[in-house]
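Q: Give me a backbone?
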Amino acid sequence: MNSHDFTYLANVLRRRTGIVLSEKKTHMVETRLMPVVRRFGFRDLCSLLKELHYGHEALVQAVIESMTTNDSAFFRDRKTFEEFRDIVLPALKDARSETKQLHIWCAACAAGQEPYSIAMILDDAKLVDEGWTITLIATDINSQMIARAEDGVYSQFEVQRGLPIRRLVSNFQQEGTHWRISDYIRRMVTFRTFNLLDSYGWLPDCDVVFCRNVLMYFDLKTRASGRRLSLVQ
């Protein structure tokens, strides 16, 4: 990939998603784009980049999705979830005791491990049994990740990353070499493909927003605009 092609690709990505690419990541970019080359039947990477200039939406979206970092884990950075359970949730129970409604948004949810971790904590709290209405929305720009999250099936490696054995046994069912999350926990989460640069008008007023390991990929201007949200970092 020459410098001109990289600059064009970086500008597209920055304009459409806020993600900033450094030329130091040229090799990573080329590696991530090769599956897109094969998927769309291009001869090589140069052919893909040439076609990208025409702005075909399906191709642009595929390129964008290939550039997103989708690494996640159940209860990743455990302290965050402990503080949500021990500090944030009790405070919200007091503050919302009259309406008994909670709205939680998990942004950039990747394959769903984070929102499902939140759902398990909410299940432990038995709020629904006490008459609470909980809206737990999870979004990601990558439609393939959203499809995976909705499916709720994870490999042995994925469930071993941060998931206590008691939760694995009580909240998952083994299917061969994979594990499927229980229907009850899965139904607690509403998944949606969403670009963080788009309008937030469809979102309800949220009591908690989880938006972790996301803003570090954006430029300073985009990070600044993100501070209008109440973020759980």
